[in-house]
Write a structure and sequence with these properties.
By secondary structure, the protein is mainly alpha-helical. Helix content is about 75%, strand content about 0%. Helix 1 runs antiparallel to helix 2. The longest helix has 25 residues. The protein is globular, with a radius of gyration of 13 Å.
Length: about 60
């Protein structure tokens, strides 16, 4: 991967990844797979922290 990406494109990619992870949280919740649901919840929180540091209080 040698493409140089500007900050706006990087933010768009992070937001797309976060939206995908949020959809997966719903999907796995409906299917009753708590492990995958929690895993995607963590991904959403990490991506949120990258975009908006300090948004979530530490648990």
């Amino acid at each position: 991967m040698t493409d140089v990406v500007d900050s706006d494109e990087l933010l768009r990619r992070i937001q797309r990844a976060r939206a995908f992870a949020a959809q997966e949280v719903e999907s796995w919740s409906e299917q009753g797979d708590a492990v995958r649901e929690v895993a995607y919840e963590v991904v959403v929180r990490v991506l949120d922290e990258i975009v908006a540091p300090g948004r979530h209080a530490a648990k």
